[in-house]
């Protein structure tokens, strides 16, 4: 432990990471630098910085990573169409690599020899943080207090905080959307999503409470009118909303508002964690749900059958890699090269109707559309000779015919 002189800590402003600061100083006799990543969560970042310093950090960095997060992580996953186990849009999974990268960057800048995080020994986040550090800075020591210390509960953490004069408050935010009373769920919040785990959700038989939602609304309480929107994509990346060009941050912020008002993007899933257990989470992803739906509609129009079908398989593997913390793995990077190539023609506009939690198609167009009305029409045409189908079927079905003839011969 004496070899560690300076530690860069992933700091959220919550109880656990605030307690980690004096714990590191006490157990490693080291300097602690706190790093808070602004990924669009509704926090009072000035208060977080002050709290880190008051808790014993020598320095506190608050980094606005929203644009990089969306453009270099989220949009790439969107292009891949990567959804974990059919429901989870990976909001926490791809947030961890960019935070860990920020820790590494600050560690190099400040001459630190270790990084630390507040992820527990039961979750996926410990893997995501640490694999990123190993990929980017293999010589840095990684400290995970939850795997080392004697603190086992929130009550233990509060007691430790009181002993070490660490300010105790549930949130550093003044945002009115945040609950004023202690919230029973473990949450991860960024510009892309909000997740809820724990408490009554640990029993999959329990339905989510209607008042749990803090981003979107209960679909049954959404307006009785349809909302129509049009999204424009360039090479698989969202660029315009209703004809207006928006930055990445503006795009997801506006889509979150529109989707939330219509009860869009609630996903309730019992997922398979990387560490071997199943866990139940409820995710709020209004803007993300809209984007994934629209992007898929455009791919239906612009990708040929073989590419689309292979990409469906690759997307599943891509999602698993992101979920497993393998963002900087050779396979994820290779799959990204494939995805990027497929997206060169995924340009166009998609119309959508939003209504009480539902997303419905409302027309799509692209200069690269592979749909050809001349060939598919049920009316008269001069480009498709239906008689050609007989030869195709004879050749395509030849293996079936040969097998049937063999079976007939054996039965005699």
Describe this structure as you would to a colleague.
It is found in: Cytoplasm. Pathway: Amino-acid biosynthesis; L-arginine biosynthesis; L-arginine from L-ornithine and carbamoyl phosphate: step 2/3. One of its GO terms (biological process) is urea cycle. It contains 13 helices and 14 strands. The strands form 3 sheets. Strands 3-2-1-4-5 form a 5-stranded parallel sheet, sandwiched between helices. It has a 5-stranded antiparallel sheet with strand order 10-9-8-13-14. The N and C termini lie far apart (81 Å). About 2% of the residues have low confidence.
What descriptive keywords fit this protein?
412 residues, alpha/beta, Rossmann fold, Argininosuccinate synthetase, chain A, domain 2, 3 domains, five-stranded parallel beta sheet, five-stranded antiparallel beta sheet, 41% helix, AS_cat/multimer_dom_body, Arginosuc_syn_C, Arginosuc_synth, cytoplasm, argininosuccinate synthase activity
